[in-house]
């Protein structure tokens, strides 16, 4: 409950940057993490963790030997995560800076990128720039996972985002839709 209130207060302050009305559901978090096959991943990056619904599921599923960090642009969410998930490394910075933080952790590339970013709130040029950086940051065969709201994926913005993913990644799979506010599904993109 406290998590939802905190989330909503940030939505009221920055609606365009949050791009959702509530944190993702536990079901969506379980789906995205299950599809990420984290047992095989040595380096994992989360983008836009918000209040940490995916973070919690990632930390539970990943191997203790794996390296994990997150990039979150909202300072209030970073401070919340420092309190609720002190074991997680969360930087207050934009997802655009993923390459710099991989270097800081001693890596060229990562195996998994799990995104909570609000794609529909970004201009197409920003989507293109971010997807290019995400693709560059993954090893060959690495997975990028992100969610989309149903049925908004059928609107022109949603269709152009799918085309952007399909043009960049070797394969893009769409999961079933799960209960969420609004209902959502996951794109599983393989480099
Ligand atoms: C739709 S919310 C999702 C939050 C959380 N992952 C969830 O599923 O409940 C989008 C999150 O992305 C963050 N965000 C937006 N733009 C960002 C950017 N350029 N870099 C990093 N985080 C960003 C927002 O502050 C917010 O926490």
Overall pLDDT confidence:
94
Give the helix proportion (percent range). 40-55%
How many structural domains does the protein architecture include? 1
Side by side, the strands of the main sheet go: 3-2-1-4-5-7-6
Note the topology.
Elements: H1 2-13, H2 15-18, H3 26-35, E1 43-47, H4 53-61, E2 67-72, H5 75-84, E3 90-92, H6 98-104, E4 110-115, H7 124-137, E5 138-149, H8 156-168, E6 171-174, E7 184-190
Bound molecules: S-adenosylmethionine.
Structure description:
Helix 3 packs across helix 4 and helix 7 packs parallel to helix 8. This protein has a seven-stranded mixed sheet, sandwiched between helices. The mean pLDDT is 94. Helices cover 41% and strands 23% of the residues. 36% of the residues are buried. It contains eight helices and seven strands. The protein has helices at 2-13, 15-18, 26-35, 53-61, 75-84, 98-104, 124-137, 156-168; strands spanning 43-47, 67-72, 90-92, 110-115, 138-149, 171-174, 184-190. It is globular. Strand 4, helix 7 (124-137) and strand 5 form a beta-alpha-beta unit. With 191 residues, it is of the alpha/beta class. It has a single domain (2-6, 20-190), classed as Rossmann fold (3-Layer(aba) Sandwich), CATH 3.40.50.150. The protein binds S-adenosylmethionine. S-adenosylmethionine binds next to helix 2, helix 4 and strand 2.
